[in-house]
Write a structure and sequence with these properties.
CATH architecture: Up-down Bundle
Oligomer: single chain
Strand order of the largest sheet: 1-2
Structural class: mainly alpha
Number of helices: 8
Shape: globular
Helix content: 55-70%
Order of helices and strands: HHHHEHHEHH
CATH topology: Four Helix Bundle (Hemerythrin (Met), subunit A)
Largest sheet: 2 strands, antiparallel
CATH superfamily: CDP-alcohol phosphotransferase transmembrane (TM) domain
Number of domains: 1
Distance between the termini: 71 Å
Radius of gyration: 22 Å
Amino acid sequence: MRVISVGRRPPRERRPDEPLHRGVYLLPNLLTTCGLFSGFYAIIATIDAQYQAAALCILIAHVFDGLDGRIARLTKSSSRFGIEYDSLTDLVAFGVAPGILAYKWALEPWGHWGWLAASLYVTCGALRLARFNVQVDSVEKRRFVGLPIPAAADTIASTVLLYYFFGGEGATHKHVILLVVIYVLAALMISNVSYNSFKGLRFSARQPLWILVALIVGLKLVIAEPQIFLFTAFLLYALSGPVGWLLGYRKRQRARNEALAKVG
């Protein structure tokens, strides 16, 4: 005989799109706030010409940005409030902060071209976040459309750290490469180039041995030369999208030519 319970209903997980009634989840939003504080301090450090400290704060903000989302998923505490708060935090920590850092550190000697590049970076970062929020339920989870704004900010921050690692002091001189890099990062963020999100990588499941070896080597490189490793890793990730698109374009052209040859 089946027994029907008439007592209290079991609690259910609140959907992210439900209205906010009983409050907010503390832990993931506290981590998001730590990322916001890090991004804001990066702006303060840039104003004080402490560019290396500003770059470190941007990287620290990325750590908090990764933790808040993972904690929210593990504790089933995702909410629409948290998603919107995280997006606003990302705009400050990975849009405004690195934009100001890039301008004061490298772009100010370029005059109008410099502040236009920095403002374009911030604008494209905001557009990238808005597009991500709109497409979050309609795109493949394992791929990003356009360069993620944290990765663009990390590229700027790691470039600053590499500059000081090789003995640089204060702001840079008038280097056209740095100006072009900012414009390229802005363009990649709003492009349709696909990037790997690494969300399909599960550390709890069995993986090939080479992945463990690569992680061990990467850890050793981080300990030995963190500035060089971080710059190389973020640069390669930023370039992986265009390179993958070019390789895919060649494959698509080859397949199209083969199909036309068969029809002919």
